[in-house]
Amino acid sequence: MWLLSLLERRKKMKEFGVLGMNRRNHSYIGRYNHRSKFPMVDNKVISKQLAIDAGVSVPKLLHIIRSPQELILLRSELELLDEFVIKPAKGSGGKGIMVIVGRDREAWIKASGDRVTFADLERHISNGLGGLYSLGGKSDVVMIEGLIKADPIFDRFSFEGVPDIRTIVFLGYPVMAMMRLATHASDGKANLHQGAVGVGLDLTTGRSLKAVQFGRPVEKHPDTGHAFGDLEVPHWRRLLELSSACFDMTGLGYLGVDIVLDKDHGPLILELNARPGLAIQMANGQGLLPRLQAVEKLTIGHTTVADRVDFSQASFSRWREMGKVSMGSEQPVPQG
Amino acid sequence: MHSNKRHVTLAVFVLVLLGLTVAGYKHFVLGFPLIPGESAKIWDIEARIHFRGENGPVDASLAMPEPGETFSILDTMYVAPGYGFRTVERDGIERAEWTRREAVGKQSIYYKIKIQNSLPVAPLPSRQQPDKEDSQEPVFYTQTLEGAYKLAADSLIERAKASSSDEQSLTSLLIQSLNETGELAEAKLLSDLLASRTGAGRYTQTDLVIRLLQDAALPTRKVRGVLLEEARRNQPLVEMVEVYADGRWNMFHPETGEEGQPDNFLPWQRGGTSLLDVAGGHDSRITFSSISRSVPLEELAVTEGRKAQAALVDFSLYALPIEEQNAYRYILLVPIGTLIVVLMRILVGLKTSGTFMPVLISLAFMQTKLVPGLVIFLTIIAIGLWIRFVLSRLNLLLVARISSVVIVVVGIMAAMSILSYKLGIQQAMSVTFFPMIILAWTIERMSILWEEEGPRDVFVSGGGSLLVAILSYFAMTNPFIEHLTFNFPELMLVILGITLLLGQYTGYRLLELKRFRPLVEGH
After folding, report:
1. Can you give the residue ranges of every domain in chain A?
2. Which of A160, A235, B104, B117 has the maximum number of C-beta atoms within 10 A of its C-beta?
3. Does domain A20-39+152-321 have CATH number 3.30.420.40?
């Protein structure tokens, strides 16, 4: 009985086009992401440099610390900063990121509200240099970048931390997107498996499709109590174009692009990921495979970012499938 | 991309086929057993030569056994103090020769061979000499029959010829008719010739049979050999008769006329060559003893294969010294462990801390046994994690911190050994088999995981690692698997093939069926 229901579920998942880990690794990452290009996203200093060169908006780079000596020299400069983010270049999955949001005389205040002294900062940075957060413990470079001031329109949806928007970009086509919102359960982290809420976003409208926490559908944010129904991401088209441009920038075919909306600067690329997770399917209530295969089937690709985003918005609209948007209409008609 | 897939499929096919073919060859041709613990009976046969020296140079030569195809000699050895030894070939027969400048008084030489019922080893070309020339020159050494005896013999031969179809049946009938002393007058007459136990007759039964067969114009020779019987001591050689027919020598029992070589008969010497020649000695005597014992089949197959110069055995792990062989017993199990890891990762989707750490842990478990190993492992990890948390407050650079953890792990291991020794728990002493660098890294990784993702993730990945380690422990300690990996290392190619195949698997992992359940069932 048990085995039968498993087989039944497997069949359903196939019909749904759920992308599994093996298939992702073998048929997408292994096939479309060339190893030589991994450092471009695994090393945040390199990807930042690339983005700056390509004119893609990113948070401001303040300092690069390459050795403990540089850290000592940098002390006076750090003392001048009130808001900044410490990021190890090779940290994966948000490891080693420290967000400083304010200053209280000698101490700095972390996003969580904890106070840290300069000695704490120094230790954190030297841990990063020593490779504590990098894959395989290789020594690393730490960068300090400007703090993102989150667009306040998401304040009611987020408990702590800055919500970000993850878009899967396949061969330059945005194929699926979700917003990740930190919760109390996720300890302020925007990591879905730790309890952050994932909100699936419609590619045409940038409006919420459904929200999940721990894989289960939720109607409203567990901490703020605000319903996700009327969540709509501004600058949506620009955000998708920004994501799509990352393909041209890196050459990585299967890419996860994390974008934050800055109050002043609009969408900024926060991080690129050459091995984006599968949880986005849960947040969207849809499998990735049909969309990926639709792109693979294209005989002539679109060369410009605008064309690709047009194609994605026309082809991968959940709203349109659900009949909420009339066919052929380019202008989304949001419904209450 | 599709040709890529075809390449892998082809490689898998070739690997699996190659592995299975070699393993099959070793099993079916070289006789390596597939199941552990199979053993074969081998016989130790000892020939004792006694003679009296004549105060001068001595040259004792013994015909070496001719086991034919039924038996194979695994080993020969001799004890002959003061003698020089060599093997010579005379009249196409190998002989062992012992020589000594001066031999005084009673002399003893022991010659020992180890034999075994032949595994079907491909015979070596040099040994595959056809017996053809031999057949052309049957050795005549029995006295010819005269007078009435001759007539009686001729009559028996005629009778047998009349009712036989070929040489073999003729031989059988002739021998049987000799035994019918009650009914056949000729047989009764001929039996007078036989040497009685006490009196000195002119013929032995074998001689008489050979005489008759030669009169019937059949090429015939005598075979002397050892009857393999449990714990027989000081037995003489047993005689058989061979008749050349259909292009080969056929053996017959001289008493019953039964055709074929008895299973327990080891032919030692054939035809007219002498069994034992002693020059410079007298009163020479030779007796044989036999004893059997059981040995594991693979040991036998190795000895056999070496003798037959089978390259597969010559260039195998068995060519290594025992100590290295024992090391490979473990090393060859690593692919089994990695296969388990691959299965658990790709088919099940279990998370482990450190991809192949579980294999190393299970190797350690093999030394410590499972339960003590688990206790030791969990103790070290628990104490190590605690120490690591203390260390993290000291603000150390990474390499220094991990080195400290390594030192602490070594300390814990030493403390456990001493404590358990004092308490009389032997198992905990085997703590030394745990790979300490791996343990230190595991502790480091777990504590980072703890700090960043919380204890839940630590238990998930730690539990996953332990589960995989326990599973691969059971796989690796399975006597059948251990036997196969060591005796058929070529099966590693099959494992490689399976691993390549799994590397192409794009289906769902078992745990993904659970993970994506809300996705498909929400609709």
Report:
1. 20-39+152-321, 60-146
2. A160
3. no
Nearest to A21 among B454, B509, B519 (CB): B509
- Polymer length of chain A: 336
CA dist., res. B5 & res. B3, Å (int):
5
**Residues A335 and A208 sit within 8 Å (Cβ to Cβ):** no
Alpha-carbon torsion angle B513, B516, B519, B523, nearest 10: 10
Q: Which residues of A131-156 are buried (b: 16+ CB within 10 A; e: fewer)?
A: bbbbeebeebbbbbbbbbebbeebee
Task: Name residue A102's beta-bridge partners.
Answer: A109
Among A21, A29, A69, the strongest candidate for a mutation testing the B interface, having the largest count of B CBs within 10 A, is A21
The single-letter code of the amino acid at B250 is N
Give the whole-angstrom CA distance, residue A195 versus residue B456. 12
Nearest to B512 among A21, A95, A123 (CB): A21
A6, A22, A285 member nearest B346 (Cβ): A22
Report the residue from B402, B520, B522 with minimal CB separation from A9: B520
* Chain B interface disruption, residue of A13, A123, A193, A322, most B CBs within 10 A: A13
Helices (H), chain A: 2-16, 21-23, 30-32, 38-42, 44-54, 68-79, 118-130, 236-250, 280-284, 289-297, 305-315, 318-321
Chain B residue numbers touching A132 (CB-CB < 8 A)? 398, 448
Note the CATH number of domain A60-146: 3.30.1490
**Interface A:B, Cβ pairs < 8 A:** 79
DSSP letters of A76-118? HHHHT-SSEEEEETTB-TTTT-EEEEEEETTEEEETTS-EE-H
Q: Which residue of A has its CA nearest to B447?
A: A132
Select the highest-mean-pLDDT range: A242-256, A297-311, B309-323: A242-256
Helix axes A44-54, A236-250, angle to 10 degrees: 110
Mind giving me the DSSP string for B193-252? TBPPSSS--SB-HHHHHHHHHHHTT--EEEEEEEE--TTEEEE-PEEEEEEEETTEEEEE
pLDDT attached to residue B128: 36
Q: Do B520 and A18 touch (CB under 8 A)?
A: yes
Q: Among partner residues B453, B509, B519, which is closest to A16 by beta-carbon distance?
A: B519
- The CA distance from A159 to A154, in Å, is 10
Residues 6+ away with beta carbon under 8 Å from B478 = none
Domain ranges across chain B: 132-269, 326-488
In angstroms, what CA-CA distances link A44 with A64, A88, A92, A126, B238?
11, 8, 10, 17, 90
Cα three-residue angle A184-A58-A248, rounded to 5 degrees: 115
Q: How far is CA B23 from the centre of its chain?
A: 14
CA-based nearest residue to A211, from A197, A194, A222: A197
Q: What is the mean pLDDT of chain B?
A: 80
B120 pLDDT tier (thresholds 50, 70, 90) = very low
Lowest mean pLDDT among A160-164, A177-181, B25-29, B410-414: A160-164
Strands A107-110, A197-201: pairing kind: unpaired
Report which of B193, B104, B87 is spatially closest to residue B150, judged by C-alpha positions. B193
Task: Tell me the per-residue pLDDT of B189-199, one tens digit each, with 9 for 90 and over.
Answer: 777 777 554 44
- The nearest CA of chain B is from the CA of A56 a distance in Å of 30
- Give residue A303's pLDDT band: very low, low, confident or very high (50, 70, 90): confident
For residue B404, what is the enclosing H or E element?
helix B398-423
Range of lowest pLDDT (A164-173, B94-103, B426-435, B466-475) = B426-435
Distance CA B174, CA B160 (A): 6
